[in-house]
């Protein structure tokens, strides 16, 4: 049945080819009038064959002839947008302009528009960055951020925009190859929690090895952390950092989920699990149960990795827990080298709707919570902060840096750069463009070199856009960004205030010396020996 469904993708081409054969035969044997059928069907057959062999459009390689219907609809999108584009199929608003920017940059087209903004700039909550009357020159070299605290002996120069976590298994082998080849020597590629595959290593791109609660790639048969296996892989020359995932924005409190249909022999071997069975990671770690134990585990991992940067990733839920983690760092004299804050609005993986909508802080609040907690405890100078959650444009990068981040990660935008059309078939193994599937016949449509170039172009153009915005704000470097430079329109009155005024920003070691009233209760409730207050 699966094979029959798969072959249906070529039905239009088969019908055209068959019709062309019979029409040509009819022309030769019966009447020249058959040419009126033979010529168009021969033309369509030739077009279908070209669709299969060309490398630019994955959807045409998987759906010859039929795929052109999508491009026809896109060409008349202004007339159809009220029905098909401006809203997702679940009825929630969707900003199509962002996706268009990613597509254009990935294809090497300068992202410009005529007739002004499509956003309602007078709407409540509208945010904008403050330009300067004295803009600066844009530097030629893209900026990087050095990740590595005092206990790190192999610091890493992180780009302002990197590939966020997407595992092999969730994505196809060709998608992983294209991402890593695109990142080669320019920015970092997060492996996701599915382990390190040979597709992550083939092109030599810089890796952030993410380890989740399943400990895939460094897992004992019982599901515990395997220190020996971890040490071997963490010391690989391509692995530049290790990221321990506590939770993710799409589904905080739940582990990762990979449907059994995607768990073939290869993926099962990489992850250390039985093939053909759905892989559900535990919701919590077995290697530690308190903030203090977590910090000790980070020190253990750094030692096993021979001094490479070790980070943690989380979707913030409770400020008390963040402060408990800070107290544990102070008590143990040990800290992670970086923290990636995942917003509740982020996540490319499948997640229960209630978890996606109801749990976890949005990136803005989570990011500022972590930044202020580290500043208030005097730890900020030794820990870099990454922001992950719907990062797609240069403006997104600059806003997050102004809110306290040092670098950003993108998943969804990188999938767009690969050719993702948001078919929402990721969990079915039937992705029409070969991005999120383990079906090799579908994945072959994604041409690695072509899509790697798109990933590279998108990332470079977006970082360049961020550099131009920073220069337009009168700044020489991202480090000069400040919350006062990000403004928001409030309420019906239309009052505009900066982030410096809207939120409380702690001074260095303020929590240690004289906690403000608004933080005092949480600070006293935080306990380095337990996560809950």
Automatic annotation (TrEMBL):
Transmembrane region(s): 7-26, 32-53
Keyword Translocase attached: no
GO biological process: glutamate biosynthetic process
Span of domain Glutamate synthase: 160-475
Keywords: Membrane, Transmembrane, Transmembrane helix
GO molecular function, one term: glutamate synthase activity
Similarity comment: Belongs to the glutamate synthase family.
Protein name, per record: FMN-binding glutamate synthase family protein
């Amino acid at each position: 049945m699966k094979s029959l469904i798969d072959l249906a993708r070529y039905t239009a081409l088969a019908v055209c080819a068959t019709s062309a054969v019979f029409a040509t035969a009819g022309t030769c044997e019966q009447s020249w009038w058959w040419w009126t059928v033979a010529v168009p069907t021969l033309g369509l057959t030739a077009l279908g064959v070209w669709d299969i062999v060309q490398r630019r459009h994955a959807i045409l390689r998987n759906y010859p002839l039929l795929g052109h219907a999508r491009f026809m609809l896109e060409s008349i999108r202004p007339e159809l947008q009220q029905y098909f584009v401006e809203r997702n199929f679940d009825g929630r608003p969707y900003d199509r302009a962002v996706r268009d920017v990613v597509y254009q940059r990935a294809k090497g087209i300068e992202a410009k528009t005529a007739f002004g903004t499509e956003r309602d700039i007078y709407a409540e909550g509208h945010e904008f960055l403050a330009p300067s009357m004295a803009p600066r020159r844009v530097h030629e070299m893209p900026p990087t951020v050095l990740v590595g605290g005092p206990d790190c002996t192999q610091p890493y120069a992180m780009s302002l925009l990197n590939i966020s976590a997407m595992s092999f298994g969730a994505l196809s082998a060709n998608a992983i190859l294209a991402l890593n080849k695109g990142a080669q020597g320019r920015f970092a590629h997060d492996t996701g929690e599915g382990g390190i595959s040979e597709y992550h290593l083939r092109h030599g791109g810089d890796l952030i090895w993410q380890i989740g609660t399943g400990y895939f790639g460094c897992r004992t048969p019982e599901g515990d952390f395997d220190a020996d296996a971890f040490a071997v892989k963490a010391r690989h020359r391509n692995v530049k950092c290790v990221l321990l995932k506590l939770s993710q924005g799409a589904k905080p409190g739940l582990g990762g989920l990979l449907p059994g249909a995607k768990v073939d022999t290869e993926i099962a071997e990489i992850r250390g699990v039985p093939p053909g069975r759905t892989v559900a990671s535990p919701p919590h770690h077995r290697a530690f149960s308190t903030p203090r134990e977590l910090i000790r585990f980070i020190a253990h991992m750094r030692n096993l990795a021979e001094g490479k940067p070790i980070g943690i990733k989380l979707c913030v839920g409770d400020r008390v827990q963040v402060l408990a983690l800070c107290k544990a760092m102070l008590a143990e004299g040990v800290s992670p080298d970086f923290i990636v804050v995942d917003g509740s609005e982020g996540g490319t993986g499948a997640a229960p709707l209630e978890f996606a909508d109801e749990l976890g802080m949005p990136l803005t609040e989570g990011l500022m919570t972590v930044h202020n907690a580290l500043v208030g405890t005097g730890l900020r100078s030794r820990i870099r902060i990454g922001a992950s959650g719907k990062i797609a444009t240069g403006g997104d990068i600059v806003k997050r840096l102004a809110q306290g981040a040092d670098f950003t990660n993108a998943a969804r935008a990188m999938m767009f750069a690969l050719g993702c059309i948001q078919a929402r078939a990721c969990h079915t193994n039937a992705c029409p463009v070969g991005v999120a599937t383990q079906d090799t016949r579908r994945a072959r449509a994604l041409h690695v070199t072509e899509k790697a170039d798109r990933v590279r172009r998108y990332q470079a153009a977006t970082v360049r856009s961020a550099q131009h915005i920073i220069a337009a704000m009168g700044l020489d470097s991202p480090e000069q960004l400040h919350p006062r430079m990000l403004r928001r329109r409030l309420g019906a009155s239309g009052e505009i205030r900066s982030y410096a005024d809207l939120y409380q920003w702690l001074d260095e070691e303020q929590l240690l010396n004289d906690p403000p009233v608004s933080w005092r209760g949480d600070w006293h409730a935080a306990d380095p020996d337990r996560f809950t207050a």
